[in-house]
Amino acid sequence: MACLFSLNAPAQNDFNFKDPTTGISNRVYVQYTDSIVETFYYRGGKKIKTNDELLYFWYAARDIKHTRGAFEGKLLHGKYTMFYYNKDLLAKGEFKYGLKYGVWKSWYKGGEIKKKEKWCKGRIVGTAYYYSAAGVIQQKKKYTDKKGSRIITNYNAQGGILSKEYYSKNKLVNTITYQLNSKGKYVVSKPEKEKKTKIKKTKEKESKKKTKEKKAPKVKEKKSKTPKIKIQKFRQVVPGGIGT
Question: Between these two residues, 3 and 113, which has the higher pLDDT value?
């Protein structure tokens, strides 16, 4: 079911309830070191089923607490306004049964807008805007589904686009960067091509010669063979003939 936002919607009866018999209201004030909060809590009898993925805001022991998937106190329900000590606005929004709902805004001390978000049943939806103290856009987040898919656009101090980050299921899947061109416009930056270094022919020849010298096979020296001398044996002839 889609959330319908209306800045001028009438307050619901259970948002600001005052018991006529006791005079007890569901309006509460919480004081911090640098701010004061005015808000309301739920006093009805509706049984609230919690979701483990959502953050619940509740009131207990004169303080506003928040836990994911559970609560142990009085759920915030109605308008929420936070002031600086000089009564300037710090933050403003609305709760329904402990969950953030509708348009939420916050401001710097000087009065400049700090951020603007839209919430539906405890989930941030649509496009959220974040600004610097000078009022310049610094970041924009566009939420596309409940599974963490979003597009984050980042800006520099002057409001010029720097990059776009694409997320799917809370994981970064792609990034596009931008640069300022000669016409003063921000365009998608192209990846730089690797410059191929040209080697001079003389250096190529020298390197080839060196490699050839290194790879040249070693010539084996042939051992000179000494000629064999044949020794002839001579018989000694004895005078007198045979048998003498």
Answer: 113
Q: Evaluate whether 64 touches 39 at the Cβ level (below 8 Å).
A: yes
Tokens 């390197």, located at residue: 207
**Per-residue pLDDT tens for 123-162?**
999 999 999 999 999 999 999 988 889 999 999 999 999 9
For 214, list phi and psi in degrees, rounded to 5.
-70, -40
Non-local CB neighbours of 134 within 8 Å, separated by 6+ positions: 112
pTM (two decimals) = 0.70
Count the Cβ atoms, other than its own, within 10 Å of residue 83. Answer: 15
